[in-house]
Amino acid sequence: MKDDFYFMQLAIDQAKKAEEIKEVPIGAVIVKGGEVVAAAYNLRETDQRAVAHAELLAIDDACKALGTWRLSGCTLYVTLEPCPMCAGAIIQSRVDRVVFGASDPKGGCVGSIYNLLTEPKFNHQCEVEKGIMAEECGEMLTNFFRELRRKRMKNEE
């Protein structure tokens, strides 16, 4: 049976694709009715676009695939807690549920700094499940940035 762990593994697979091209390894998958309707990974450095976050790219692809901007009935799986920009897009696209892996204490807006997705003042709130495969998701990011720092230090020598 496909469950949160199954779909989070698919998001991790997307994050690995980002890592292969030297992007910050963040991946996202959108599921409706037990089927993946969109999958994406971070392309901010590759595209040099501030909005090329995995979640936004997946939302855009899901809207195209489903032929609607309303992603009601969908669950978004993402390896890192969404930032304020992505949380806003999640609210605006009416995603019902968000499942994320690692928390982001410096930029996360699904519980770490603020929780935009459950803010009752907005016209839409999401169900949130956090910490699914958090260790694997966090480790991937930690290793990526550790390696980036190591290369920078080596180049400075």
Automatic annotation (TrEMBL):
* Cofactor requirement: Zn(2+)
Q: Name one GO molecular function term.
A: tRNA-specific adenosine-34 deaminase activity
tRNA processing among keywords = yes
How cofactor binds (record note)?
Binds 1 zinc ion per subunit.
Cross-referenced PROSITE patterns: CYT_DCMP_DEAMINASES_1, CYT_DCMP_DEAMINASES_2
Where is the chain membrane-spanning?
none
Q: Which domain of life is it from?
A: Bacteria
Known catalysed reaction(s)? adenosine(34) in tRNA + H2O + H(+) = inosine(34) in tRNA + NH4(+)
Q: Does the keyword Transcription apply?
A: no
Q: Which residues form the active site?
A: 55
Domain CMP/dCMP-type deaminase positions:
2-111
Arranged from A to Z, the UniProt key words for this protein are: Hydrolase, Metal-binding, tRNA processing, Zinc
Q: Which Pfam families match?
A: MafB19-deam (PF14437)
So what EC number does this one have? Answer: 3.5.4.33
In Gene Ontology terms, what is a biological process of this protein?
Answer: tRNA wobble adenosine to inosine editing
Q: Where does Zn(2+) bind?
A: 53, 83, 86
Q: Which family does it belong to?
A: Belongs to the cytidine and deoxycytidylate deaminase family. ADAT2 subfamily.
Q: What does this protein do?
A: Catalyzes the deamination of adenosine to inosine at the wobble position 34 of tRNA(Arg2).
Subunit details for this protein? Homodimer.
Q: What is this protein called?
A: tRNA-specific adenosine deaminase
The scientific name of the source species is Anaerobacillus alkaliphilus
